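Exercise 7.
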Amino acid sequence: MEGFLQKVADFSAWLWGIPLITVLLLSGLYMTFKLGFFQFRYFGYIIGQTFGSVFKKPKGEGTVTPFQALTSALSSTIGAANIVGVPAAIMFGGPGAVFWMWVIALIGMALKFAESVLAVEYREKNAKGEFVGGPMYYMTKGLNMKWLGVWFSFALMIELIPSIMVQGNSIATTVETTFNIPALWTGIATAVLISIVVFGGIQRIGKVTEIFVPFMALFYVGGAVVILLMNVSAVPEFFMLIFSNAFSPAPVVGGFAGAAIVEVIRWGFARGLYSNEAGLGTAPIAHAAAMTDHPVRQGFWAVVGVVVDTLIVCTATAFVILSSGVWTADGAMDNSSALTSLAFESYFGGFGSILVTISLIFFVLSTVLVVVFYGAKQAEFLFGMKASYGMQVVYILAIVLGAVGAAEVIWGFLDIMLAAILIPNVIAILLLSNKVKALTTEFFTSDQYYKKDQKEKKAKKAAARESYES
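Solution. The predicted structure, written as tokens, is:
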């Protein structure tokens, strides 16, 4: 059995290496070129339409606000990968891996945008009057390939069972190690908390995540910002370390054994993609429920999701690790998952370790909260509304089972199952790329959307100037 599991682990590592990274890189580049590098050309406008409109009344119809849809999607993507994945990329790929993590984030924005635009375009109302959508709907309605939608939906629904077990185990072991609370108790408490929220549907999830996600992100990133202010002189060195090692093999330093340029790029790409989930097809399920007057406008929120997750949270982790020097310590390679905790501890003492532990608990809790909803939507698509409630119960039980270590045997299969979701979704995005292009062109050329926003902006500036002069 052990030999078989090792073969599965080896195949999984190979699959999520060059093959899938190449697929995501090429498809991201294709969508970036096809959409005219919109994420760079209109970046300021995108920020204004998202973060700049958080307190404005949403345009169009939907079930939750655009901000609630974003925070729901971020609940899934901001997770253990932001705390544990970044140090792994640095230890196995060197500081230069952070640069390639940024590159794949910028390219991945086009994929994340495309899948979210399609999710809104092909969404529909369910029996409760809620807007539902995602890859299974645009595969069925946009491509007329229901079999592909069923494949995606069934694979995601099943994959989430061991995935939730792993998350449950992560939170239980973290709490047991730090606070000495038995794993079973943590599993039961987590299951009860998640149940209270998820059985209230996307509206309750949206209301919880719009408070929960900004708080947890600010708590963690805030700690990193304090370290930045304590150590401003290290900022130039931080960027020099990243850029100097991005295009040349990283040297051997302390616990770091050095890495070839191929490994630097591979680890950066892998961590970036794993963190922001561009192309995986999960975030569009949350974005499909948003109030919006055009699919492209909600697509902008998906773009800033990548900004928050990879360019802000992952970079904050990288700065703390690289500036603290813990990555160069002897034995660092053998315990990369603890480096973030050690780095914060080097600045804040015992409080630093507690800060990372609490952040990890928050991140994992929020991830479980939303992936249970994602799984329930798959059951609803496949079998109807009653099945979605049944699947939620299965996921809640999976939290408790995972907390006591029941998922260890199938952990190796997780990445393979993720590939079974990602591949059909990327195929669908590429086949529907002309639709995404048409919707994007419509948004930026129609007098109803982009041009109207620009006219309103100019009118406000003119009014403000007149008021100032008078």
